[in-house]
Design brief:
Layout (H helix, E strand, L loop, with lengths): L3 H11 L4 H8 L3 H8 L7 H11 L3 H6 L5 H60 L1
Length: 130
């Protein structure tokens, strides 16, 4: 992919966008996108930056073919997202363990207190009756 136009087309197709969808996201006419893809005109830097965002590719890749291609960027993004989710699950698992331990301690305390109250009630009944 040695031209901006080819990279735009490749990135657009990898996102399964048609020309109209990309034109809506970038804020230009579909004919303008087609002219860029056909290498008839080059997009201005601000449009190229907006297009990079819409296509989830780096500005550098879109401009000169450096950095990640769309498939690589998407895979890297997914892996990063999955790692973040896995870390969050580990954190929640640890928090859940702490909460379970605390709940068990509270339950033991409440049961012991209930037993003490029952014993006191029995002593009071015995003292009152006897």
């Amino acid at each position: 992919m040695d031209t901006i136009g080819k990279r735009i087309t490749y990135a657009r197709e990898s996102k399964n966008y048609d020309v109209n969808q990309l034109s809506d996201r970038v804020g230009v006419k579909a004919e303008t996108i087609l002219a860029w893809e056909g290498d008839e005109r080059d997009p201005r830097a601000n449009r190229l930056l907006r297009m990079a965002g819409a296509l989830d590719v780096s500005f550098a890749w879109l401009m000169v073919g450096q950095d990640y291609e769309p498939d690589e960027a998407e895979t890297a993004g997914r892996l990063s997202s999955m790692e973040g989710k896995l870390q969050r699950i580990r954190q929640l698992y640890a928090e859940l363990g702490v909460l379970i331990t605390s709940l068990e301690q509270d339950t033991r305390f409440m049961l012991a207190r209930d037993e003490e109250l029952e014993e006191l009630a029995e002593v009071d009944e015995t003292a009152a009756g006897g």
